[in-house]
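Fold it.
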Amino acid sequence: MGVGENDGPEHLNVETPATDRMQKPFMRRLRDDIDDLYFEEKITVNGCSMITHLTSMYWGCRGFPENLQDIALLPLIQKLGIDSSRGTVLISLIFAPWAMKPFFALLSDLVPFLFFKKRWYMVLVSCLGAYGAFMASPLGSTPDELRGDVPPDQQGFLLFVYFALINGAIAMCDSLSQGKYTEICKWKGATVVSYVSGSKILAGVAAALVGPRFNDSDPQINMMIIIPFFAQGAVVFGMNFMGDRKLPMVCGFDSAIWNKDKRIIITGLTLGGIAAMLLVFELLTSNGIVTITSRMRLGFATAGIVAVLGMTFWSLPRAVAAINVYIIFCRVAALDVRFVLQQWYTSRAAQCGAGNTPHFPNTIYQMVGLILGNVMTLFGIWLFENYVYFWNAQKSFWVTTVFTVVAALFDVSMITQFNRTLWSWLPFMSNKVTWLCGDDGCDPGGYRLDDMFGFLIGMQALKPIATTLDDMPSTVLLSKLCPAGVETTVFAILAALMNLGLTVSGLLAGEFFTKYEVKISSNTKFETLEGKADHFEICTFKAPSFPAGGEACVCGVSDGKNYCEQFICNFGNSPLGDSVNGITWTLIVGGMLLPLTTIPATFCLIPNKPLNEDMVDEQAPAEVDLAGGVAPHPAIAFARDSPSYLDLGGATANKEELEKASIAILGSRSGSGLLAGSRAM
């Protein structure tokens, strides 16, 4: 059902009290709310049409496919044999399109395409996302083709291209959809946002149940699964179920928006340009056109963040800009070590030696870990809403930073195997099990119980709570300064800065792994000629002892082909001596020491008032008010001096509904975000 006509919903005939509205089933309430706006001519589609779009988008584009490609990415990089430093850098660059959301929003607002501002842009990028998924699947490329017979710093280039297309498609479709559903939110409250957030969470759980089972055999199968999801998105977006208004011109430039809001537009374009240049640098370097080292990219990205943060003081209210500085500081300070942890937890005995790592299958590390992690994240949100929300803003950041440091201790306990000492009072905990191993998911004998319980109780139970309690105060501050319904471009800039901070964090972690010689990788060579020797050129050494990591080589026959697989398993070194390896040292620096430096910054950048109070002191214009006699939201004053593509003028949702919606949007993360990183908005 697109933008069709009907006789009008029956619920419009009589004024419905708010209590009666809340007694309706959730989906009927959502449909009726949108129908109300449609018959009041505030939007151009009815409830069934908009729900179709939201379902297609947040189940079929940003929901299941986003989470499934997240789940497949790290194991696929691992299968390609890409080493720790290069893999960490690749991941940070693959997610750079999420820092381009302001660029996507501004492009669609300023430059219409084929009579529409959103419709055909979404169709185009959905097709590009489907192409990226096809080429990253077994239908488009083999593992050897994705890796390429190239120097290590170029390995994974094609994988980077395909996954960047996928993430760019999801990020742009999400950015353009947000403007539509937050428009509904400003009149009807948080119901539509709850549907969007719930869809993403449930889709993430579904992906966690499906994806890890394939990762132990062939992660590329997951990429094949998501192709039809992008295809359906292209169809639904093309049929315009979200009701993008048709313009009188085929294309052009909306000079009115540019002339009105130059400062914020320049800031958004600069931010998107910096993220885009990081992608260009990878393209140029991998094709041998120029040589731009990871350190040079890190310097460029850092300088770019500093420049954009400076521009926010020029284009946004000072309170918004100051909190942005603090949030980016927190993002960069927590080094991104997700790929190395994936390697360490799931490496086999043939690579890193029996007993030196947990040897988990992906069904344990990802499936069980993600499901438990999502449950504990919800528990962390409950703790925040019932306790931390009422604390002083500065003190809440101090306490939650301490929680983050404590969470990092659990990672360190696993890397140093101190967790085995903690469980040694129960002798059976050293036993091995093969739960959820599948046909080829585990080493012979399986994995130890004490490793599994240490992982689940520490990294996937306590760490998600600590991470949530650390993220939520900044989420609330942002929601109070830029709630859903104020203006979508400013909203995108705030979240895009957070995503760019995550990219810088990954580039910085890559430098740490290079400096301290952390390298876990593999390289496989096949030989189809019969009668070849058992060992190829890559196997020029004997298997060493493994306590400190090392190298090994395994040769055999697979599918009628001789092969040799070279393994490198070096946990690196540190300034603290042989007792602390490079992975542990990175966790100490990036999970403890650097996060602690953010505490003094709260005195300069965070308001000294409770989180549950208003954070903007400007007075709202007298002629603007919210429904129910509630005092005007302070963000209305903010909207006077920022672009008003979607301001609060005429809003009927009350202050609490708007804040609830904005917290849900800014606080949302991918279902796989706990293991594969998180993305704001």
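The first helix runs from residue 18 to 23.
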